[in-house]
């Protein structure tokens, strides 16, 4: 009976966008087809020791060839919204210049297939697969890359803009900054804090320039950023831990939220970086006005809370999933959604990622029992529902992920999908969580009140 609250089944709005998410490099494969260029992940995944088992995205879930089958899966699940990403090196193999028509054609077929099945497309422009040619020209450390991104965005908007009602610019700038440039376990594998925050600024600038590019086409599609937000709690009850958690929050959340929605970087973070830092030196007059161009929706990705100790370290408080960085804490979903609405106003929100990896195997009867994923999603949906009841304008929810896929440095060992992928055969098998999610969506539809007779609050209930 899911998701059900203490007072019975939870009611979600009729038009709630039940969805699932993927990204290009993680599912497409076909790395050399139809004129696709190399991305930083093609390069990085080939460096010995960088990914588990030396896995690469060369084949992945072979979605480039199997997209029609995957579209049918989405229809069978009853999805209303599908979030995917467009591969920059398919559109501009070298990161600049005239768009590659065969690359655009693939996304046109995918988008048409979504419309044919009544599923609303939500497209991310950049989910980490920077063209290698731009990386060779200093990548996101170069301000020019932000302008190259705006050109790429413009080409995509002109070709596909009329068919995509919702665009997302940059997926998780923070993860590029932290994993790509601080820890170094994502492409391009750097460990350079001074570079990292200059990269943050250029990613924010790229976002703002892409928003301008969409407006310049006269499109009435919506656009926004996709941020992974981490609620940061003091690990203990002391003023030192409270202060450390506050600064940690600055780096995790306010650096991105404040620049986008308040038109300024947080003063505590700038002070901590220092006036001689490459980032502070790299901010030019007018940049913050570009970065804070009005957006239509804010995409939030929630996975885990962070507990910050007095010395600025972190601690685990809750059970982790197979991803050692993830603590399972549904209440954090409520906290982050209500906080964004409280601190930044009633901007329309979408959850574009929420999920966990589970140790899935196919049983002898051909089923995949991922009970842990059902419990996780049920509890996070319930928390999102409570946030909506508290006034958060949340319009959709996308499970990460539709399919098992290439989980970056973890390769194919971590399985995040609603749908199991048997990689040797590329066969798709609905996990129990997929059939559960299908029934959640179907019940929401079937319990919709008859036309003209809205429920007490104009919404439909969800129960089983
Ligand atoms: C996201 N963290 O990455 C990405 O958008 C997806 O491509 C990825 O597959 C998914 O989450 C699962 O990892 C994250 O350390 C990476 O908190 C790291 C973190 C969060 C999200």
UniProtKB/TrEMBL annotation:
<keyword id="KW-0136">Cellulose degradation</keyword>
<dbReference type="GO" id="GO:0004565">
    <property type="term" value="F:beta-galactosidase activity"/>
</dbReference>
<comment type="similarity">
    <text>Belongs to the glycosyl hydrolase 1 family.</text>
</comment>
<feature type="region of interest" description="Disordered">
    <location>
        <begin position="36"/>
        <end position="58"/>
    </location>
</feature>
<protein>
    <recommendedName>
        <fullName>Beta-glucosidase</fullName>
        <ecNumber>3.2.1.21</ecNumber>
    </recommendedName>
</protein>
<feature type="region of interest" description="Disordered">
    <location>
        <begin position="442"/>
        <end position="464"/>
    </location>
</feature>
<keyword id="KW-0378">Hydrolase</keyword>
<keyword id="KW-0326">Glycosidase</keyword>
<dbReference type="InterPro" id="IPR017736">
    <property type="entry name" value="Glyco_hydro_1_beta-glucosidase"/>
</dbReference>
<keyword id="KW-0119">Carbohydrate metabolism</keyword>
<dbReference type="InterPro" id="IPR033132">
    <property type="entry name" value="GH_1_N_CS"/>
</dbReference>
<dbReference type="InterPro" id="IPR017853">
    <property type="entry name" value="GH"/>
</dbReference>
<dbReference type="InterPro" id="IPR001360">
    <property type="entry name" value="Glyco_hydro_1"/>
</dbReference>
<dbReference type="Pfam" id="PF00232">
    <property type="entry name" value="Glyco_hydro_1"/>
</dbReference>
<keyword id="KW-0624">Polysaccharide degradation</keyword>
């Amino acid at each position: 009976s899911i998701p059900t609250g203490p007072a019975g089944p939870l009611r979600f709005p009729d038009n709630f966008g039940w969805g699932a998410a993927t990204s290009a490099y993680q599912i497409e494969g076909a790395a050399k087809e139809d004129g696709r260029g190399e991305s930083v992940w093609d390069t990085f995944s080939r460096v010995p020791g960088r990914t588990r088992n030396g896995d690469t995205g060369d084949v992945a879930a072979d979605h480039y060839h199997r997209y029609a089958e995957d579209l049918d899966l989405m229809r069978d699940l009853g999805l209303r919204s599908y979030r995917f990403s467009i591969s920059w090196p398919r559109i501009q193999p070298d990161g600049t210049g005239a768009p590659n028509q065969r690359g655009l054609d693939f996304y046109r077929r995918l988008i048409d297939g979504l419309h044919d099945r009544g599923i609303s497309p939500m497209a991310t422009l950049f989910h980490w697969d920077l063209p290698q040619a731009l990386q060779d020209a200093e990548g996101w450390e170069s301000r020019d890359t932000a302008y190259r991104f705006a050109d790429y965005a413009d080409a995509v908007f002109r070709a596909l803009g009329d068919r995509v009602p919702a665009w997302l610019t940059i997926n998780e700038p923070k993860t590029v900054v932290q994993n790509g440039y601080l820890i170094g376990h994502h492409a391009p594998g750097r460990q350079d804090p001074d570079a990292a925050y200059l990269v943050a600024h250029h990613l924010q600038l790229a976002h703002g320039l892409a928003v301008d590019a969409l407006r310049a086409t006269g499109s009435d599609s919506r656009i926004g950023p996709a941020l992974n937000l981490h609620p940061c709690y003091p690990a203990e009850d002391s003023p030192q831990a409270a202060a450390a958690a506050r600064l940690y929050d600055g780096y995790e959340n306010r650096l991105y939220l404040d620049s986008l929605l308040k038109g300024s970087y947080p003063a505590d973070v700038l002070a901590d970086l220092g006036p001689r830092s490459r980032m502070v030196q790299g901010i030019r007059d007018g940049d913050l006005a570009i970065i804070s161009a009005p957006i239509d929706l804010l995409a939030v990705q929630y996975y885990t809370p962070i507990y910050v100790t007095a010395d600025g370290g972190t601690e685990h408080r809750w059970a982790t999933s197979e991803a050692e960085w993830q603590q399972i804490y549904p209440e954090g979903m409520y906290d982050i959604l209500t906080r964004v609405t409280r601190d930044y106003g009633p901007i329309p929100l979408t959850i574009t990622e929420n999920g966990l990896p589970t140790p899935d195997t196919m049983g002898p009867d051909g089923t995949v029992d991922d009970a842990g994923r059902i419990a996780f999603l049920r509890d996070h949906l319930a928390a999102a529902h409570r946030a909506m009841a508290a006034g958060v304008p949340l319009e959709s929810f996308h499970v990460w992920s539709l399919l098992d896929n290439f989980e970056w440095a973890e390769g194919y060992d971590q399985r995040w999908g609603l749908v199991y992928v048997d990689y040797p055969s590329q066969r798709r098998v609905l996990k129990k969580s997929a059939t559960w999610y299908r029934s959640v969506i179907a019940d929401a539809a079937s319990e919709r009140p008859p036309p003209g007779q809205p429920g007490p609050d104009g919404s439909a209930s969800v129960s089983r």
